[in-house]
UniProtKB/TrEMBL annotation:
Listed cofactors: [4Fe-4S] cluster
Top-rank taxon: Bacteria
GO molecular function terms noted in the UniProt entry: 4 iron, 4 sulfur cluster binding; [formate-C-acetyltransferase]-activating enzyme activity; metal ion binding
SUPFAM superfamilies membership: Radical SAM enzymes
Keyword Metal-binding on entry: yes
Signal peptide: none
Annotated Radical SAM core domain residues: 27-170
Entry EC no(s): 1.97.1.4
Lineage: Bacteria, Bacillati, Actinomycetota, Actinomycetes, Kitasatosporales
InterPro entries, A to Z: Aldolase_TIM, NrdG2, Organic_radical-activating, rSAM, rSAM_sf
The entry's keywords: 4Fe-4S, Iron, Iron-sulfur, Metal-binding, Oxidoreductase, S-adenosyl-L-methionine
Name recorded for this polypeptide: Ribonucleotide reductase of class III (Anaerobic), activating protein
Length: 170
């Protein structure tokens, strides 16, 4: 197995208002998951619910070892892990982290704004079964972009892909 300690520690960031890794059911309906919020996002959406995660230059607060320990202690209690953000596709260690979580028996989810559709490749090629959730903002992605991404992902074997429209003012 790949050592993900140094590869993934750079992308994990603690959300200040939760002071740790959060367990929830809303990130993956029907499943109890832990959500890891990744630092950095190229967009500056006015409706962003994690503005403290936008700056990719902020140092990490939660090392991968803490996440792996959290997952180890919750075997049999949690169904999966969701990588959210910020923008998780900015993280070079994302595929290794997903693989490590999967090796512990967890389902893997990804919440992305779709800023880096070609970076899905590294995750898809990792062999990890996962759910991909894309928030579509019509000001950033037009119908052609969405159709192209949907077809590209389907061609790569993505079976669980949830599309949701941005909810302004929420």
């Amino acid at each position: 197995m790949t050592d993900v300690g140094s590869a993934t520690a750079a992308f994990l960031r603690r959300r200040p208002r939760h002071q740790g890794i959060r367990c929830e059911s809303g990130a993956a309906p029907g499943r109890l998951v832990t959500t890891v919020f990744c630092q950095g996002c190229p967009w500056r959406c006015g409706y962003c619910h994690n503005p403290e995660l936008l700056d990719a230059r902020v140092p990490p607060a939660v090392p991968w070892e803490a996440v792996a320990s959290h997952l180890g202690r919750r075997r049999g209690l949690l169904d999966g892990i969701v990588f959210s953000g910020g923008e998780p596709l900015l993280q070079p260690g994302l595929a290794d982290a997903a693989r490590a979580a999967r090796s512990l028996g967890y389902a893997v989810g990804l919440h992305t704004g779709g800023a880096y559709p070609r970076r899905f490749g590294a995750l898809l090629d990792s062999g990890v079964a996962h759910q991909i959730r894309t928030t579509v903002d019509p000001a950033l992605l037009d119908e052609r972009d969405v159709t192209a991404l949907r077809e590209w992902l389907a061609g790569r074997g993505v079976r669980e892909h949830v599309w949701q429209s941005v909810r302004c003012g929420s």
